[in-house]
Design brief:
With 73 residues, the chain is of the alpha+beta class. The chain contains two helices and two strands.
């Protein structure tokens, strides 16, 4: 079981790699697992939803994920 992860940005900033540590909860793991299943199915079916209505920031990404999880797209 994974409880912690680190996002490491591959492009250095001021000569240093940036790391973003994350604590992963059980709810996070379930959400990610469900999103992966949905995305995999959409790719297999060549079902690429229009994302132009979502803002290009974290709020828009979460809204898109929520819509996929709720079956709206």
């Amino acid at each position: 079981q994974v409880n912690r992860g680190i996002l490491e940005f591959v492009e250095p900033k001021n000569g240093e790699l940036i790391e973003l540590p994350l604590n992963i909860t059980g709810e996070d793991a379930i959400r990610i697992s469900e999103i992966v299943k949905i995305v995999y199915k959409k790719i297999r079916e060549l079902d690429f939803p229009d994302t132009s209505e979502y803002s290009k920031n974290l709020k828009g990404i979460i809204a898109f994920e929520d819509d996929m999880l709720d079956g709206k797209i």
